[in-house]
From TrEMBL:
This is Protein PsiE. It is found in: Cell inner membrane. Keywords: Cell membrane, Membrane, Transmembrane, Transmembrane helix. It comes from the Bacteria. It holds the Pfam family PsiE. The keyword Membrane applies. It comes from Sphingomonas psychrolutea.
Amino acid sequence: MNAPTPPDPTPPANDMIADSSFKPTVSGTEHVVAAAAFHLVERVLLILVALMTIGGALTEIVGIYQTRSITLADILQMFLYTEVIGMVSVFYTGKGATFIYPIFIAMTALARLIVLQSKEMAPENIVFEASAILLLAVAAVVITRISRPGAVGEKVG
């Protein structure tokens, strides 16, 4: 009697999805073209973000001029625009920790939310949002300390 043969553990040659060891090969030219294309898309989107941010800031300035009144919410909104421009600048210059700016933007946005909605918000929600700001501040300090030369565990010199 012939025992049934176990199934072949190797996937068929044309079943690349089932083969977890499959790694697509990309030629050097393809790699260079893809990297250049992604770099170009990134730069175009960064320019678009900068232009939209400048447009938003100008709209805010016109609104302030028309109402002849500056509120704390307006000032915090201008900080948000400034931080977005700073983040785009960091991407172009390569100076600074790129992860810090989104954290600052989140902190400013939460502060603006607290300022604008604190009268209608439940007290525990204000505490939660203030705690989130504190957590983001701690994260910013940790990232700054780690990314700085001479950080914990690094040798300087």
